[in-house]
């Protein structure tokens, strides 16, 4: 399960969902760690991570397409050639179609670098690099004799503490037994921050305790950092761009699918939401890519994460990929378009009255408002009557107080969403947790809603190849 959605997970994901609705489901403790990381949101970004339960978090996407051959038409399928590297071993990636396909074709770059601190040793075994997605495969040795937790998996600019801007999802869980554990973390980049040729990979580990379960930092943590050199040149050779230029119109609402970028690390589809729409359109409903090859069953390539529309309406969908296996066709499919009325996209809360003054369809209820030294936590509740139509997510750029002043969310926590089944009627009750900086805010507080369940259903099919 993935955790961090729309501006994760909006609607992890993988997670995510980061989740991407950012929603832990049956195993909250593990999912909070293993999906989209709320703290990985840097700058003005927004993403949606999809998973078995959704994880939502946010950031605004800006498209910049030059580094990876944007605009080029696919030549004689350069991505179908065999890569340079020996197969990665020791990782259970059979269920990861992108990683397993790239591994068969020799495109997971070996790293084999280790760093120890205290009683822990991290070894990066390999990386899979693409235009906007980086997968890191690593192991952790826990020699402490007791359980531990992975608190953070960060990418930094080498030689500094500057954290790169991305969404992330993790496979393998955050809890560490004694001995060896294998981990796989996915980083999704916005086009305005292309993947650099070298990064610092940092893993923070701490002994397990009730205090570390929901925290990203601990006074007892050990941090292991190592610089990774990424073979971007080889990855560029296996990347091609397919122009789409397809306008989708449903009931007067439009969006344009501009192009698809095929690479070993996945398929990205670039889109734009028209600013002339009368409704708030946030993209495709339940998108996926169907891969077909004669003599074999069709394969559904999932959408683990989406960078949601920015100020200019640009957005990016991330899909898994088996393009290296030379499918006969790749077709983007969706069940419709996410769209709701513009005027309903705000939640107004008075925390002193402990009351929601207004919200989309008046479905949001006040949960709780608690204060601690490091943060104030506002929780809001609603029931997902249209579960298949997605979830609520809050714009992560901040909120407005009663005097019109803008505020950012707590940098370390941001926001997350927890969804659980509601007994009896089959719907799920969702709790939104909004983490604010500790200060006395003039009331009421206004939060912009970046996603709310609402779909214009209509089958969509767009051939990619």
The amount of beta strand, in percent, is over 45%
Per DSSP E runs of 2 or more residues, the count of β-strands stands at 30
Calculate Rg over CA atoms: 21 Å
Q: Which percent bin holds the helix content?
A: under 10%
What is the distance, rounded to the nearest whole angstrom, between the alpha carbons of the first and last residues? 31 Å
Biggest sheet: strands, sense, closure?
7 strands, antiparallel
Sum up the overall morphology in one term: globular
Q: What is this structure's SSE topology?
A:
Layout: H1 28-34, E1 47-49, E2 55-57, H2 97-104, E3 109-117, E4 120-129, E5 133-142, E6 148-156, E7 167-171, E8 175-176, E9 179-188, E10 198-207, E11 222-229, H3 232-237, E12 240-250, E13 253-263, E14 266-273, E15 279-285, E16 288-292, E17 299-301, E18 305-307, E19 314-319, E20 329-341, E21 346-350, E22 355-358, E23 365-371, E24 376-384, E25 393-400, E26 406-407, E27 415-421, E28 428-436, E29 445-451, E30 455-463
Antiparallel strand pairs: 1-2, 1-18, 3-4, 4-5, 5-9, 6-8, 6-10, 7-9, 10-11, 12-13, 13-14, 14-19, 15-20, 16-17, 16-20, 18-19, 20-30, 21-22, 21-29, 23-24, 24-28, 25-26, 25-29, 27-28
């Amino acid at each position: 399960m993935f955790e961090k959605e729309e501006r994760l997970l909006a609607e992890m994901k993988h997670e995510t969902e980061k989740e991407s609705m950012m929603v832990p489901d049956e195993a909250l403790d593990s999912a909070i760690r293993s999906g989209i990381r709320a703290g990985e949101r840097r700058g003005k970004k927004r993403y949606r991570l999809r998973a078995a339960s959704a994880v939502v978090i946010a950031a605004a996407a800006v498209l910049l397409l030059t580094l990876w051959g944007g605009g080029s038409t696919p030549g004689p399928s350069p991505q179908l050639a065999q890569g340079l590297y020996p197969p990665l071993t020791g990782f259970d990636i059979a269920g990861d179609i992108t990683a397993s396909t790239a591994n068969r074709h020799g495109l997971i770059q070996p790293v084999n670098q280790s760093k120890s601190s205290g009683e822990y040793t991290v070894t990066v075994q390999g990386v899979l690099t693409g235009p906007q997605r980086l997968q890191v495969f690593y192991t952790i040795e826990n020699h402490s004799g007791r359980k531990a937790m992975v608190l953070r998996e960060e990418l930094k600019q080498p030689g500094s503490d500057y954290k790169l801007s991305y969404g992330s999802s993790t496979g393998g869980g955050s809890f560490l037994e004694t001995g060896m554990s294998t981990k796989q973390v996915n980083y999704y980049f916005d086009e305005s921050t292309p993947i650099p040729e070298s990064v610092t990979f940092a893993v923070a580990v701490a002994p397990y305790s009730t205090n570390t379960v929901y925290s990203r930092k601990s006074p007892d943590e050990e941090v292991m950092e190592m610089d990774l050199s990424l073979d971007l040149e080889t990855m560029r050779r296996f990347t091609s761009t397919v122009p789409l230029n397809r306008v989708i119109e449903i009931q007067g609402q439009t969006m344009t699918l501009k192009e698809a970028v095929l690479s070993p690390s996945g398929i990205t589809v670039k889109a734009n939401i028209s600013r002339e729409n009368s409704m708030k359109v946030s993209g495709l409903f339940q998108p996926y890519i169907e891969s077909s090859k004669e003599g074999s069953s069709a394969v559904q390539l999932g959408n683990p994460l989406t960078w949601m529309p920015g100020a200019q309406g640009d957005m990016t969908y991330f899909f898994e990929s088996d393009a290296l296996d030379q499918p006969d066709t790749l077709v983007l499919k969706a069940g419709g378009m996410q769209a709701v009325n513009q005027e309903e996209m705000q939640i107004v809360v008075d925390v002193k009255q402990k009351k929601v003054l207004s919200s989309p369809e008046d479905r949001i209820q006040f949960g709780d408002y608690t204060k601690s030294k490091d943060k104030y936590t506002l929780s809001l509740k609603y029931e997902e009557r249209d579960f298949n139509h997605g979830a609520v997510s809050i714009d992560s750029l901040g909120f407005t107080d009663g005097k019109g002043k803008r505020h950012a969310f707590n940098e370390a926590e941001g926001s997350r969403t927890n969804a659980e089944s509601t007994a009896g009627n089959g719907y799920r009750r969702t709790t939104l947790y909004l983490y604010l900086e500790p200060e006395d805010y003039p009331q009421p507080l206004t939060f912009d809603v970046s996603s709310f369940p609402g779909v214009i259903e209509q089958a969509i099919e767009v051939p990619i190849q």
